[in-house]
Amino acid sequence: TPLALLRTELELARRRPRTPDELRAALDSAAAEVDRLSRLAEDLLVLARADEGRLALRREPIGVHDLLETVARRFGTQIDVAAPDGETIVGDRLRLEQALVNLVDNAQRHGGGTIRLEAERRDGRMELRVADEGNGFPAALLPHAFDRFTRGDEARAGGGAGLGLALVDAVARAHGGTARAANRQRRGAVVTLELPT
């Protein structure tokens, strides 16, 4: 789909003379599709490396509160952060940010209401959660949420490739952890990365 959209934008831009504003809009649209293709290629590369057990991690101590605040700031919108000060985990900051950014992006596109980034230590492990107040996951999707190319109903699909949650799962497993998705009791979805501390 990104390649088809990119080709269409460029072909339309070449068909007839365009005003500078029309050309700028076509270039902006083409650039957005190139970004989307780059993310797709990166996600596929991460998943391929994870399949081969070659997803290299640069492990370092990471302040959990700082990690969640960094992810929240990337979106420029109000995202609630709830994490205890002073808690740390050892992991690959770039990969964990990538997983959390995927989850927040999903919550923004498919969820609703307030989005929360939360961290909590439980039973010797650290849980990193992204929760929203939308309609939640379709019940039939939950058992397959982390399968590649799996997308929910039209309301949750939103034109993605269905790789975001698979990537989250791969990052969690590379850290010796797990990922799980659920619907909240009142309303909304929550996805949890459970990582060793």
Could you please describe the fold and organization of this structure?
By secondary structure, this protein is of the alpha+beta class. 46% of the residues lie in helices and 21% in strands. It has helices at 2-15, 20-51, 64-75, 93-110, 154-157, 164-174, and strands spanning 59-63, 80-82, 88-92, 116-122, 125-131, 178-183, 189-196. It has a 5-stranded mixed sheet with strand order 2-4-5-7-6. Strands 1-3 form a two-stranded antiparallel ribbon. It is globular. The relative contact order is 0.14.
Q: What do the pLDDT scores average to?
A: 85
Given as residue ranges, the uncertain stretches (5+ residues, pLDDT < 50) are none
Which strand-content bin applies to the residues? 15-25%
N-to-C SSE series? Answer: HHEHEEHEEHHEE
Morphology: globular
Instruction: Calculate the terminal CA-CA distance, rounded to whole Å.
Output: 40 Å
**How can the largest sheet be summarized?**
5 strands, mixed
Portion in helices: 40-55%
Cα Rg? 18 Å
- The count of β-strands is 7
Structural class: alpha+beta
Number of helices: 6
